[in-house]
């Protein structure tokens, strides 16, 4: 049951609350959910003297609910990041790692680190290891594309590939290739030259590593995988 409650407190009580509060109430069946809905509504209106927004209040399946950027998966209330927020994350990463504008690699990596810290800090309850590994892989490819675009000239690409440990024959074949930047960002030569270790040394933050720190804190605090968001 997702609802928005508009709070109206009488003067002199000395209590301050947000103007609008969103609540979720879970139950096992639709019948019990309807019963609880009416009970909670009576309590809010008669006891707390609140105004319930009926346009935003409903009884529905937990699978259809998005709450504070989270969605709910399966029985037991496991959290996941909503598709909308995952899309926003990718759009922001694309904005930071776009290949024009004259931005340096280091400034991009610094911006990504700041963004990752805040995003994972908020959504770490709904993230999983495999999901983050997939996102990290995609982000590394975008950074490799930035390097390839930055090198630009054929001779520069060959020189940088050789400098970063690529075999001479591969450096010449890849460096002189006419394929697009995005295609070349996943080439074998770029994986050797701009490896995971190299990117880590340059300052690229890992979503998985940031998330692991939050996960270890949850385990230390005795919080399970279905730990509440709020």
Rounded Rg: 25 Å
End-to-end distance, in Å? 16 Å
Compute the number of structural domains.
2
The ordered H/E elements are: EEHEEEEHHHHHHHHH
Q: What's the average pLDDT?
A: 82
Low-confidence stretches: 1-15, 224-230
* Beta-strand percentage range: 5-15%
Structural class: alpha+beta
Strand order of the largest sheet: 2-1-3
The overall strand count is: 6
What characteristic shape results from the CA principal axes? elongated
Determine the number of helices (DSSP H or I, runs of at least 4 residues): 10
Largest sheet: 3 strands, antiparallel
| Helix amount | 40-55%
Structural write-up:
With 230 residues, the chain is α+β, with helices and mostly antiparallel strands. Helices cover 53% and strands 12% of the residues. It has 2 domains: 2-60, no CATH class; 80-220, no CATH class. The chain has helices at residues 30-47, 83-96, 105-123, 129-151, 154-163, 168-175, 181-184, 188-193, 196-202, 207-220, and strands at 2-6, 20-24, 51-58, 66-67, 70-73, 78-81. The protein starts with a strand and ends in a 10-residue tail after the last helix.
């Amino acid at each position: 049951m997702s609802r928005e409650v508009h709070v109206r407190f009488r003067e002199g009580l000395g209590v301050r609350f947000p103007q609008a509060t969103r609540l979720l109430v879970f139950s096992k069946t639709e019948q019990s959910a309807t019963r609880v809905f009416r009970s909670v509504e009576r309590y809010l209106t008669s006891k707390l003297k609140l105004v319930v927004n009926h346009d935003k209040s409903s009884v529905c399946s937990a699978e259809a609910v998005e709450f504070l950027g989270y969605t709910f998966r399966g029985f037991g209330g496991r959290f996941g990041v909503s598709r909308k927020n995952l899309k926003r994350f990718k759009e922001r990463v694309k904005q930071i790692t776009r290949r024009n504008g004259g931005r340096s690699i280091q400034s991009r990596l610094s911006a990504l680190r700041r963004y990752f810290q805040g995003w994972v800090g908020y959504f770490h309850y709904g993230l999983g290891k495999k999901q983050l590994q997939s996102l990290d892989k995609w982000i590394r490819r975008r950074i490799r594309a930035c390097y390839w675009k930055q090198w630009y000239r054929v001779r520069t690409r060959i020189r940088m590939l050789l400098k970063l440990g690529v075999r001479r024959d591969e450096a010449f074949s890849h460096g002189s290739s006419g394929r697009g930047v995005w295609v070349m960002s996943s080439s074998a030569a770029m994986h050797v030259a701009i490896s995971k270790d190299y990117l880590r040394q340059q300052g690229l933050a890992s979503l998985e590593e940031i998330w692991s720190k939050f996960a270890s804190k949850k385990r230390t605090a005795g919080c399970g995988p279905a730990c509440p968001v709020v």
